[in-house]
Every structure is written in C-alpha cells, then in structure tokens.
Amino acid sequence: MAGPILVVDDDLFFRQLATDLLSQRGHRVVAVENATLALEEVARATFDLVLTDVVMPGVDGFALTARLRERDPEQEVILVSHRTDVQGSEVALRLGVADCLTKPIEEADLLLAVDRAMERAQLRHERSRLQDENLEFARFHNLQQRCLELLSHPDLEWLQERVIADLGSVCDAQSAALWVVDDRGDLGLRSYRGLLDKQFLPEKMSPEGPLSLRLREALPWLARDERSTVLYVPLVAAGEVMGLAQLSDPLTGDFRAEHTRDAKVLADFAAVGVKNGRKLLALQRLGLRDRDTAAYNLSYFTDYASKEIYKARRYGRTFSLLTFSIDNLPLVRVRLGASEAKKAVRGIIKALSKIIRDSDVIAKASDQEFYLLLPETDFFGAMMFVRRAVAAVRDEPEVQDVEQRLPLALVGGASTFPKDGEDFDELVHRCRRRMDERRASLQRRLMLDGLPFWDEVDLLLGTPNSPRLPTDDRAEPSRRGKVADVLFDELQVEIARELVRDPGSRGLLYVGGPEIRADLPLAIGLEQAPPDLSSRIYLLGRRVDLESHPALTPVFLEGDERVARHEFILWLSESASYALIQRRGRGATWGFHTSDTAVVDGLISKLQAEYDLQPY
C-alpha cells in the first residue's frame, strides 16, 4: 500500500472530496482543517505527501510548506488555491513544491499530480533503503575483516591491544578495558584506554562468584555506573572463559542493540584468538628452552622483556629484573668435573623454578649467569625474592650434593623499571652493579652467611682491640667504634619522618632494645602516621607500657639477656638500607653501623629466624 497523505484545507467539501478520491486509489489519507493541526499530525507520523490549501485562517499554505521543509527538506507538497497566480509564483518555486493546482480541480489533474509526487517519494524511500543496505553491508564486511584479523595474529600482546580497540570502535565507546585469563584462572587487567582511571580498575578478578553466571552465559550485558552505561562483553571460546571487556562512554549517549550484537560477534572471534595465542605461546616456550636446564634462551627472554617494557610504559606499571651468577662455576668445573658443574646449574634453575609465579620468566644468559623477569614486582619485592631464591637454592638436593665438596659462590642483583632504568640494557647494567656491591660487601668478605644472628652481632661489634673492618671502594661504608649516645634516638626520629613522608614505600624496620616503651622516639613520631603504611615495623624487647599502636607491631621478648644488653635498628626499604647495632657500657657506647644492603638483609633474615618472625 502507498504511504499516507495529509490533506490540509479549511474547506470541508474539498477535504471530503480529496479523501474520497485518494482513498479509492488505495492511499491512506488523514485530513485536517488548519496548519496547526497539520503540524501536530506530522509530529506524530511521517507522510509521503502533503496536499495543502494556500489561503487558510492563521498559518497559510506557504508558511506551512516552509515549516514542513524545515523538518524534512525532501517533503513532497502540492499547493491548491482559488488564486490563479499561485502556479509558477516566485514563492512556490522558492519553496520547491511538487505542483500547484487551481480550484476547482479536475479529478484527472489531481490524481496525476499525486501519482507523480508519490512516485518521487517512493524512489527516495528506495534510494534510502539501498543506502542503508549498503551501509549495513559495509559495516558487516568491516566487522568480518576485524574478526579475521583477530584470528590471523596469534601474538597475545597485539591481540590484547587490538581487541579493546576494535570493540570500542564497533560500539562507539570512548573508553575500554580488557581482562584476560592468566595461568591460574584469574582475570588480569591487560589493557585499557580512553577516559578510564586505572586506580578504579581491579588488577585481578575471579571468574567465580558473582561473575560466574554472567560469564557462563557468554552474552554481553549492560550495567550502570555513576557516569554512564557500561557494556560488559565476555570472551568465551568453547565454554572456556578467556577474558572480559568493559566498554563505556558511548558517543551516542547509550549503547544500542546493534552495539551489543556486534560486540558479541567480535568477542567470540577474539576469544578464539586469545585461546590460540596462549597455545602458541606455550609451544614457543617449549621450543625456546635450554636442553640442560629448561630455562628460556636469551633471545626469547629479551623479546619478552621488550614487551614487558612496552606494557609498563603504556600502563604505568612496574616490573623487576634479577640476575644471578655462579661466580666460581669455572672452579667447580675444574675441580669436580663438567657433569657436577651441570648438576649445580640444573639444581639452581630447578630451585628458582619452584618459587617463581606463572607470569615470571627465567632465562639462561650464559653458562654461569641467569636472568629472571618478575612482572608487577617493585624493588622491595625483588630484594625479598633474591633472599628467597638464595635460600631455595641452598635447600635444593642437587645443589647440596655439589656444595658438600665445594661451596657455590651464588650472587644475585635486582633492578626495577622505571626506578633503575627504562630499557633492558640499563636494567641489566644496574643488576650487575648491585651484584658487584654484594661481592664486595662485608657479608661475603667476612663470610657471615653461616653465622646465627647474635654471633654475627658479636663479630660486627667486636671490641676496641678488634682489627678494623675490611673495606672496598665498591662496597657501601661500614664502621665500628664509639657512637654518640643520642644516635639511637635521633635515627628513630628521622626514620619516622621518612615513613610519614612516603607512606606508600614498602620496607621492613626492626627496632630492638631492653624495653618497649610508649615514649620511644619511633612510637611518638608515628602517632600521626596514616593507617595504611606500606612498611612493616616491629619493636623487640621487654614489655613496659606500650599496649597497642596503629603503626607498630610489638614483639615481647621477656628475659632475653642478649636483647637487654643491645640496641639495634635494622631498616631495609625500596630507597634505603641501614643497620645500627650498639652496646652501652659504663663509659662510651660502642656500636656498628652500615648501609651495606647485603649485611642489612642478612641481619634481618637471621633476626627473623632467631625469633621465628614472619618474613615479609
């Protein structure tokens, strides 16, 4: 059936005549008596043709035509009038009316004019439909190309960036984030863009719990946050959850049905792409391992590190690089043989592999040097890992078997992006500098590794008649001798100020002495500290009057004469390492202090073992 026609005339006879004639030809007709009612009808429905009188009370036909053309520049209009000067008039031509008919109108003339106008209207409708079909075809073709590209690029890093870019594009979303499943089954944040603030995006989400039902349905769903509508799009391949995308800030103000439909299609292909990428990565890792140790080769490791550097720069993340060296491996090879040297290397790699996470990567750089990359790990975390790594190596049976005949000189160093450098070479250089510092430290020169805590304290303090401590230009300074009586208190004040100034810095602080009192400078200095201090702070000694403190953890050691005779401060953080140990006598105070990281770390480790304190 042809489209509707609107007849506007104050003459009831003409309205009835036009309605009857046009209805007989199969047209749907709406007739009104003035322009005001006509505009109300046009606001409610679309008309292929408007047939209007020129001379009417109020708004005339010319003004009505102008208003109609403002709404739709292609609106078909036929003017009718008793006036003979309307046809071909300048006003009619300017308004672009389809035809002008003079009353009384011949039936044939009216029907001919209407047929021509309706034919033009139908041609416009057909053209618009074809344009919409072409646009729809182009859109689906574009969507198909995007889907095929997601399947043709197995690189996970590329996929993660491309998925949110494509989802944002097809859904007209200005902001997008993507979580991808990791080796433990959790959804980890891998990519984000647009107007999102990273601090409000969870780093990890569990696919279980509230999310499980939504993810299993594998269908996009809409939610509402404080700013706008959010579209969540699960990535599921063959029932296996591969990721979750979050889209927000749509350009159109809200997400439409076609956005949800296209996002579902794209997400299905993206899930398959991610799944294939993970499989390929696993195969690559199997093929890029050293035969003897199963560690990755250096080529793969540097490529992986380059991608990690890009991610860290792009998303403001941090990661740490660790280097380990068996300094005396050539000696082991000479004295014990090549097979024992290989056993030692294999045991070290096995020990490290037991304590690394799925996302960590270990590589063999040379016969005696190894690299580890720890994503999302700050410098303090890297230092703690070095300690754990050395302990794990010492406990490995293959290493123990070799060390029964010849101890291994294992040394490790750490660096963190971007604190220590922003490219791979800088980070490696910083690691090796720290390895050199450990080689030159008192910890190695005095062979302190095997001593219990208090035996090491006695050795470091010595007596006035003890020989001077060995020095090395590469090592941090260490001193023993008389110290000022106020040094212990002044250091507590300065450390408290530093902790309050930078509450987010991670670290360990142990303060020990004869008594745990509420008037200790450290306790007073941290009374106004924020409740979320990242450093862990412990007070060791005999209980006096400190009941509880929001920033301090007391460790009450009643009757321990060694603690009663000494005072010590052991501080290890991302930016500082310091140890002060002193013994007060009848005359001057005798003490030892150092900023040698290896010594400080060793003292803290032995203190934790001595009193069964929980490691960081």
From TrEMBL:
Pfam families referenced in this protein's UniProt entry, alphabetically: GGDEF (PF00990), Response_reg (PF00072)
PROSITE patterns: GGDEF, RESPONSE_REGULATORY
Residue stretches making up the GGDEF domain: 317-451
Signal peptide: none
Coiled-coil region list: none
UniProt cross-references to InterPro entries, sorted A to Z: Bact_response_regulator, CheY-like_superfamily, GAF-like_dom_sf, GGDEF_dom, Nucleotide_cyclase, Rev_trsase/Diguanyl_cyclase, Sig_transdc_resp-reg_receiver
Record keywords: Phosphoprotein
Modified residues (4-aspartylphosphate): D53
Gene3D superfamilies recorded: 3.30.450.40, 3.30.70.270, 3.40.50.2300
Domain Response regulatory: 4-118
Entry protein name: Response regulator
Species: Corallococcus soli
Lineage, broadest ranks: Bacteria, Pseudomonadati, Myxococcota, Myxococcia, Myxococcales
